[in-house]
Each structure stands twice: as C-alpha cells, then as structure tokens.
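JOB MANIFEST
job_type = single_chain_structure
chain_count = 1
residues = 102
[input]
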Amino acid sequence: MGEDTDDALDRLPHNRFELWTQYTATPRFSALARMRFFGRSIDKTVAIDRYVTFEANVTAQLSKAYLGVLRIDDALDEQPETRAGYHTAGRVVSLILQGAWE
C-alpha cells in the first residue's frame, strides 16, 4: 500500500515549510514576500500533489491617520489543489485603506 496509507491524520502534508523575507525601507514603508511549500498529502484516500505558493504584501503609512496595504496571494496564479477536487481561487489582489481618527 505504500507510504500514502500510513498517514496518522487525513489531509496533513508529509512536509511543509515557509521561507520569507521582509524589507523595511523606512519606518513608514515595508514589504514582505513569502514562499510556502506543502508536500504530498492524502484526502480521504485520494493523493494530493505537493504545491508551492508565493505571496507578498506592501505596507505604507500614508499619513498619521491612514495606512495602506497591498496584498497578493498566489502571485503566480498556480491554483493548487488543496483537497480532492478543490482548487484555490488563484491570484487574489487586495488593497486595504485603514483610517484612524481621534
């Protein structure tokens, strides 16, 4: 039956790790990039292939009252299969503007 049938818990990958780096240009501006690797897993007896995703976000303090964040998930638009028959949405770009007033 092989290595795929001895999983203690369903859906847990055999290997998983993340690499990330952060750059802070000034106290008001920073960027973060992350690579996430998920190894092969089993979902109800169906083998799910390993996959890698890349994410990034940029944060800027626009003024004393405003913070802006640009975030990109699955930057390479891989749309990996995370469960049997289920793929992620692919590349998602979010822009957030946060305000605080006294």
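[summary]
Strands lie at 16-26, 29-38, 41-43, 46-48, 51-61, 66-73, 81-83, 86-87, 92-99.
The chain has one domain: 3-99.
exit_status = 0
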